Request: fold
Amino acid sequence: MTDELANSEVPLVDIIDRLLGRGVVLAGAATISVAGVDLIELRLSVMLASVDAMDRALAKP
Amino acid sequence: MRTADATLLEPQGLVTVGDAGLSALASPYDGAPTADAEELRAHERITARIHDAAPSLPSRFGQFFRDEQSLTAALRERSAGLLDELTIVGDRAEMTVTLEWRGARPRVTTTQYATGREFLEAKAAREREHKDAEAVVARLVDHLAVDQAAVRQTICPREGVAAIVALLVARDGAQALREKIDSFEQRSSGVTARVYGPLPPYSFAS
Reply:
């Protein structure tokens, strides 16, 4: 078995599968530019967490 | 992570938008970046850093909001369901297992067949591979003795790969899971297993 602890070691093909095919979808449409061609326009990448947890995390010095 | 264990999360350029008990962290961009390896890995690094700091649901790459108001509106629309998902996921993390066939198993991808026989043989081969992959995953899940609700699987995602299996596990259970998967691989003559994680729960956020 091969263990991959650091994200940088994860093959790109697996990252593409995970990042483009999974995760929360809030927006109905997206546009990303691939090789100079605007396929999907990207302005914000989003992470969701509870406000309570984020407030605590962000408040720490 | 557990609330008591929450560590410092520096904003590091992220903006925070909150509504109805949820908060979204977003990275502003000037223009549409290219979806290359650097951008994808950056997205994954940010997602991992946040999930390390607090329970969170990772977003799919490439979502576009023109401003904070549109993001807030989208968040409000889905807040109840997302809060439920956050509760279910809790402070657990995702471990991903990529099961690859040990022997060459070329996949017929063409849609052009010279004869009906070729078409039927290719169809039968695809069905055999799919069935064999499902059986491997079933054996893995049985070997790991994990709850089916904590398993997501993708069968035959690409040539050479039998399945990608995502498992939702407690962070302190990651090493034990690796050992079990190692044991499974040693017993299995059909597949090898590559394990990634702990990762943010991409496969358990919808």
User: Anything to note?
Assistant: Helices of chain B lie at 37-53, 68-89, 116-144, 174-187. Chain B touches chain A through 77 residues (CB under 8 Å). Chain B is about 40% helix and 25% strand. The longest helix of chain B spans residues 116-144.
